[in-house]
């Protein structure tokens, strides 16, 4: 990353970026000005605020002056929940020298603004919240990647480093200010405003082969989108906030519209040293490396080419080792690299998989993500239980991993690691210890399982824009969720047209409740369709061709839940789903209590014949109040609701369909409940289950 602020800011002129960037900063600046702050936003007590800490501590006099010149001191005097990473005087002096400023007064005012907000994060994060790899967005919406190193300071506390440059000074931490917590740092945090191609240009020493392949295919140049200008022009057509009924118990919540529609990417690359060791690549001969990578791509994709829409004509035109063909999305090398790229930005390893509410003794937390290779899917898995000798510690992230069963072999997959300088404005880069492909092993073995995907994961915009997994899920819902401070997380409503892989009619409302680990839903987050006339169509993940049972998981038994008809590829499927019912309703037939194993099996068989399943045994939520004592996901017997034993949590079979390859498939949800506007239809997770798993003579029910 560049440390020169002038250079980084100038790069924002690329693709009209500068205007939007400074617009965002100006908006934040106006928010921070005293004239624009309502009187009720200020504390009247005399407790120390962040502003007092900066003014009264001579070790931060330089940063205090920067904050004053930026007009941000009033914000730090107001009530709220913030985390501040103030640089020490020594850190500021290093920054001044690097940028040829004599004093703080020489820094342009607009850069003071940038510096102030670069070090400020919404919500309170303690040292214990900094896991091995954690990412937060600062007030400029730039990622701060915090890595807890193995080094210990003089107090035997782990040293955490932000964006590979700024170490947190634990001895100067202050957690007693009234409006948050303060973690001083030893270097100024300068946001990296590079775009994806620039990030790779400047930091490709370890991945020269993949970098050159991305250049050869033109995929490197595709990483230039950052901000949807159309949304900036039209977002004011939608109210900034809305008051909405969640449909759970008549509870009303305030939800905000997304501030921006950012576009982001994630790139997985295999370092040169790995390619040398495992495949005998020679990085000194790049032409030979590209040729060899092409040959590997042909070997991997030749058996499954037709499933990915490759015709005989495509083979004639594009299946050749000709640089002119590399730019075609139907060329094997292009297909190979495309599968290593995602159309969303994961800002840290902690964001890959939502681990809340998964009992890792029964299942590994898993996400299924579409890639930039058409009609393909990637499995991202936090591996806890495995016979794999390469898994060094629980919780490592693997791509396309499969645990060995009595029916299927183990597939190790590729281990994910985070390199230094892996984040830019619109792109994150991660390293793999082996290549990945949407090949026969992936399709026939790894994906021959129940594919369960959270609705929060289906839509790339929710990840890139920090909506998925936002906030602090261990805090209970309260009155603070209905003000504009959003101190523990944000409820959102998603305007029509915001989601690239879905369509919502104008009368429908797509409502997202901020995560809460006591919610009876997967991952602690909740998605609802609201209103009596919603009509919502979305794209499902691509799967290998075959017969699948399609299921919807949700929590029912609330009087103001909705009723909706489902369609697959435009064709209606079965009778409407009535979410007002409990699974124990006679029409469904679930029995709960102290059942013998024989009775449970019999009841499950009856449920299956009726088109229903209990909730998964691997998912849980905390009992009321118990979740506040757990800031990291952990299953605690006696403190958790198990979904398979909760009568309000169940799965409904939507349809059994023959899913074809090389085309996208959709599900449509249309309201048929017209008795009012509080008709929330909850969409928790979707399951696509191959017939080999759930059909007659299949491998077993897969109740996890």
Q: What's the CATH first level of the largest domain?
A: Mainly Beta
The biggest beta sheet is recorded as: 7 strands, mixed
Q: Would you tell me the structural class of the helices and strands?
A: alpha+beta
Counting H and I runs of at least 4 residues, what is the number of helices?
19
Q: Give the fraction of residues assigned to helices.
A: 10-25%
Number of separate structural domains = 3
CATH superfamily of the largest domain: Galactose-binding domain-like
Instruction: Give the mean pLDDT.
Output: 87
Question: In one word, what is the shape?
Answer: globular
Unreliably modeled segments: 1-46
CATH architectural category of the largest domain: Sandwich
Q: CA-to-CA gap between the ends?
A: 44 Å
- The largest sheet has its strands arranged as 11-10-16-15-14-13-12
In total, the number of strands is 32
Q: Could you name the key traits of this structure?
A:
single chain; 704 residues; alpha+beta; FAS1 domain; Jelly Rolls; 3 domains; seven-stranded mixed beta sheet; 19 helices; disordered N terminus
Describe the structure.
This protein folds into 3 domains: 5-182, FAS1 domain; 194-226 and 262-449, FAS1 domain, CATH 2.30.180.10; 241-257 and 451-694, Galactose-binding domain-like (Jelly Rolls, Sandwich). It has 704 residues and is of the alpha+beta class. Strands 11-10-16-15-14-13-12 form a 7-stranded mixed beta sheet, covered by helices on one side. It is globular and about 75 Å long. A hairpin with a 3-residue loop joins strand 5 (158-162) and strand 6 (166-167). It contains 19 helices and 32 strands. 23% of the residues lie in helices and 22% in strands.
């Amino acid at each position: 990353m560049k440390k020169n602020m002038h250079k980084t800011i100038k790069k924002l002129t690329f693709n009209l970026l500068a205007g939007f960037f400074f617009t965002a900063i100006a908006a934040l600046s106006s928010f921070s000005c005293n004239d624009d702050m309502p009187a009720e936003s200020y504390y009247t007590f005399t407790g120390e605020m962040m502003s007092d800490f900066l003014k009264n501590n001579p070790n931060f006099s330089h940063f205090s002056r920067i904050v004053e010149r930026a007009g941000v001191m009033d914000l730090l005097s107001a009530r709220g929940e913030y985390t501040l990473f103030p640089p020490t005087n020594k850190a500021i002096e290093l920054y001044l020298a690097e940028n040829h400023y004599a004093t703080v007064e020489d820094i342009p005012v607009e850069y003071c603004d940038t510096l102030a907000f670069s070090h400020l994060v919404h919500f309170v994060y303690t040292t214990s919240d900094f896991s091995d790899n954690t990412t937060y967005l600062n007030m400029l919406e730039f990622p701060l990647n915090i890595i807890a190193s193995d080094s210990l300071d003089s107090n035997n506390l782990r040293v955490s480093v932000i964006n590979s440059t700024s170490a947190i000074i634990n001895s100067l931490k202050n957690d007693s200010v009234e409006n948050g917590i303060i973690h001083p740092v030893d270097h100024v945090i300068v946001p990296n405003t590079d775009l994806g191609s620039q990030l790779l240009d400047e930091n490709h020493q370890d991945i020269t082969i993949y970098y050159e392949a991305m250049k050869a295919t033109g995929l490197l140049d595709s990483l230039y989108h950052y901000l949807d200008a159309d949304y900036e022009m039209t977002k004011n057509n939608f109210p900034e906030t809305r008051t909405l009924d969640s449909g759970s118990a008549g509870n009303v919540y305030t939800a905000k519209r997304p501030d921006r529609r950012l576009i982001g990417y994630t790139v997985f690359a295999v370092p040169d040293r790995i390619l040398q060791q495992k495949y005998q690549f020679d990085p000194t001969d790049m032409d030979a490396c590209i040729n060899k990578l092409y040959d590997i791509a042909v070997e991997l994709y030749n058996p499954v080419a037709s499933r990915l829409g490759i015709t005989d004509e495509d083979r004639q035109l594009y299946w050749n080792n000709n640089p002119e063909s590399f730019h075609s999305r139907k060329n094997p090398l292009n297909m190979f690299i495309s599968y290593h790229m995602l159309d969303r930005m994961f800002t840290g390893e902690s964001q890959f998989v939502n681990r809340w509410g998964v009992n890792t003794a029964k299942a590994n937390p898993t996400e299924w993500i579409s890639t930039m290779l058409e009609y393909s899917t990637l499995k991202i898995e936090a591996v806890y239980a495995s016979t794999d000798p390469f898994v060094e510690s629980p919780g490592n992230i693997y791509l396309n991993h499969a645990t060995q069963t009595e029916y299927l072999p183990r597939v190790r997959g590729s281990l994910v690691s985070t390199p230094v300088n892996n984040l830019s404005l619109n792109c994150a880069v991660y390293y793999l210890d082996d290549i990945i492909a949407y090949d026969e092993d992936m399709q026939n073995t790894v994906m021959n399982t129940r594919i369960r995907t959270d609705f929060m994961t289906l839509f790339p915009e929710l990840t890139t824009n920090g909506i998925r997994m936002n906030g602090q899920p261990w805090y209970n819902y309260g009155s603070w969720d209905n003000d504009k401070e959003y101190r523990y997380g944000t409820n959102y409503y998603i305007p029509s047209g915001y989601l690239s892989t879905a369509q919502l009619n104008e009368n429908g409302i797509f409502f997202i409740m901020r995560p809460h680990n006591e919610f009876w839903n997967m991952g602690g987050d909740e998605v609802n369709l609201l209103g009596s006339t919603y009509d919502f169509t979305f794209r499902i993940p691509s799967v290998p061709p075959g017969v699948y049972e399609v299921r919807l998981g949700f929590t029912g038994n609330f009087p103001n839940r909705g009723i909706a008809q489902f369609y697959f590829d435009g064709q209606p499927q079965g009778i409407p789903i009535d979410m007002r019912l409990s699974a124990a309703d006679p029409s469904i037939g679930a029995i709960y209590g102290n059942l013998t194993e024989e009775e449970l099996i019999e009841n499950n068989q009856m449920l299956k014949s009726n088109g229903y399943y209990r909730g998964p045994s691997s998912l849980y939520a905390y009992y009321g109040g118990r979740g506040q004592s757990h800031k990291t996901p952990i299953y605690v017997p006696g403190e958790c609701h198990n979904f398979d034993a909760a009568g309000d949590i169940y799965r409904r079979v939507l349809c059994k369909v023959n899913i074809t390859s090389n085309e996208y498939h959709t599900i449509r949800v249309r309201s048929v409940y017209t008795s009012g506007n509080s008709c929330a239809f909850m969409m928790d997770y979707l399951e696509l289950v191959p017939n080999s798993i759930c059909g007659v003579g299949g491998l077993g029910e897969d109740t996890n």
